[in-house]
Amino acid sequence: MNDSYKVNDLQNGDFNIRAIVDILKAKWYWFAFSIFVCLGVAWFYYQISPEVGEQKAIVLIKDKEKTDAAFLEKQLFQANSNLANEQIMLKSRFLMSKVINRLGLETEYSMKDGFRRKVLYPDIPIRVKFDSLFNKNVSLSVIPLSETYYQIEDFSEDPDWSVKGSFGTPLNTPVGELNIIRTSYFTPSYIGQAIYVKHSTVSSVVSSFITPLTVEKVDDTATLLDITYKDMNQDRSAAIIETLIEAYNDDATQDKNQILFNTSLFIDDRLQIINKELGLVDGDIEKYKKKNGLTNLSSEASLYLNNNNANRQEIIQLTNQMELVRFIREYLNDPTKQSELLPANSGILDTGVEGLINQYNENMLLRKKLIRISSDRNPTVGTLSNELASLKNTVLYSLDNLYRSLQIKLNDAQRQEALTAHRIGTVPTQERYIMSVERQQKIKEELFLYLLNKREENALSMATVEDKIRVIDTPYSTGRSSGMSFMVLMLAAVVVGIFIPSVWFYIEPMLDVSVRNRKDLKDALTIPFLGEIPRKKKTKERIVLDKDVRDGVSEAFRVIRSNLDFVLPLKQDAQVIMFTSANPNSGKTFISSNLAVSLSMTGKRVLLLDMDLRKGSGRKQDGSFYPGVSTYLSGKTDDWKSLVHAPKEYPDFYVIHSGPIPPNPAELLLTSRLDDLIREARREYDYILIDTVPYGIMADPQIISRVADMVIYVIREGLMDRRMLSDVENLYREKKFSGMTVVLNDAGAKNTPYNYGYGYAYKYGKKKRKLI
């Protein structure tokens, strides 16, 4: 069964375990070769792959500094740390650059360890000191020749440059001055062994050192970070983690100290400014009090209120006295009250007036008593009447004086009251100003005291700065290696070795657009299928048939010979069969020759005509051609039978070569001599087989087809493009050829051209055929 059929079955969804097994059996050598190569590559990869170990450390990120309760406000300028930010910071190029500089990792030392290269750290036997201004990538190898001398080779700047030097002595090189010194790790075992030195700029290697570093959260609810580093050297991994933590803490401490230092400067500046402002506020209060004659505004305001109340009481009293005086005057001046007593104890505070009123009332009482006792003509009564009149005038005069005196006192009291009221009215303004200034004074005093307190706290903070990272677990080896185990690698190589050819055998038919098998022809063509010729071993012999041979090729020709009986028309005369194809090297000559021999083995007389006039066949030893078809068609001979060759080893098989190459082959084929030749040959032979050129390249096949009873279209597997099958189908449908059939040649070859010397490029004359 053809392998291409099996692959097609898999592609078309017809899953068949036996088809897969058959493919594996048929192509076992490709699988064996692929597995062998993959195992070799895997083994070599394992030998050269460095063993990468893993170091891990667990650290705690502190949110805030822990301080005593008395200093809880110390974190005035600090914020809670963000764990994601810390992860990014730990993987920053900035920190890794510090690590590289501190550990000197910009220069790598290594030695060969079998196929691998072993990184030396920290036990480096030598150190290469470069110039302080040197900043470029360079590599070299140092071979200690003894404990005193060494030799430099493999210089990247000049591979052919080599020089000897002595340890500790500066040496001029193409990249400047180098000084190679021995370290405490140097032992005689290093003598004669190459130590490879690779120096790089920090910026060029920082990325390669960051890549193996991973920083992950231990838990979403905790501020713990898991720092992992993978490296070929376990000691270097641990040193990188430790130095990374140290650099992070130093950077955080530096940031904190910078903040605290700037805070201290800020506080000192503010204290100076506030102290100056306090002095100005105190001066303003002093000037204002001096200007307004103030001592204690509260006491003075209370005094003003007391004075104002006293003035008000005095004004009321004076007003009352004036009213009493006016009442008494009106009483004295009332004619109806002439004989009446004056009001006594009226409330007038003037003792003189009160004394005169009392005296007037005593005299009035005495007069009235004398009148009751005697009469109003009594002289004493007359005297008393005169005294009363005089006394009344005196009282009136005294009341007028008292009234004027009270008016003066009232005016003065009212003036004092107005002045006191004015002073009381200015008190709120003064108090407001004083309160405003004193408020500023109080604020600045409190701020001054607050900043003094903060200055002390800041000084304490500077003295007690803590690391931001606390190491919970120091770097330790996890025991895991990123390198693949040998058995797993070998198993993977076997799988890949099977996978690669499997994929190729699966996709190769998809990429192949040529005719791959008989199924392709039957799917695309309705032309009768005459048979297929299997792939054959390469041989110089054109005819491979033998009566006693039962190989696949011989049996295939016998099948085709049997199928001819079903497709050839029944005729009394000979049957004419023409062979053509779409491509050169399709095997027309091979098939026509062997089919002719196969027919002759049945006792039939068979004539094979080589009608490829453009190439010529039947060459003699001197290079000239035997007379052939071209000789007859051109009229140089009328006896076509003289052109027939009869091989002795194949009875009943006869051949006429094409003969010399004519200048006008198409015109010769159009002459009636071709018809005459075929007509006369029909009488002599049972079968006439005509071998022609490929159809479509030349017009010859279409011209010759007029004398053919049947046309066999030869398609060679792996040579003809499947997209051309539609053209072949059109030839059949348009009846360009009579009795058209198809033969598949080289079945199973699959894109392996099999050249029988036909030689079409198509460049005629460069390669000649030899039929017999």
Structure report:
- This protein has 772 residues and is α/β, with parallel strands linked by helices.
- The protein has helices spanning 3-11, 17-26, 28-48, 83-90, 93-103, 202-210, 234-292, 297-333, 351-373, 379-463, 486-511, 518-524, 552-567, 588-600, 629-633, 665-670, 672-684, 700-704, 725-733; strands at residues 53-61, 107-113, 116-119, 126-129, 138-144, 149-153, 163-166, 171-173, 176-182, 195-199, 213-217, 224-231, 469-481, 529-534, 575-581, 606-610, 653-656, 687-691, 710-716, 740-747.
- The strands form four sheets. A seven-stranded parallel sheet has the order 14-20-19-15-18-16-17, sandwiched between helices. A six-stranded antiparallel sheet has the order 3-2-10-5-6-7, with no helix packed on it.
Which labels suit this protein?
alpha/beta, 16% strand, disordered N terminus, 6-stranded antiparallel sheet, 20 strands, 19 helices, disordered C terminus, 7-stranded parallel sheet, 772 residues
Low-confidence stretches: 1-7, 9-15, 65-80, 751-772
Strand arrangement, largest sheet?
14-20-19-15-18-16-17
Rg over alpha carbons: 68 Å
Helix content: 40-55%
Determine the mean pLDDT.
78
Helical segment count: 19
Q: What's the assembly state of these chains? A: single chain
Helix-and-strand structural type:
alpha/beta
Query: Alpha-carbon distance between the termini?
Result: 33 Å
% residues in beta strands: 15-25%
Shape type: elongated
Count all strands and give the number. Answer: 20
Largest sheet: 7 strands, parallel
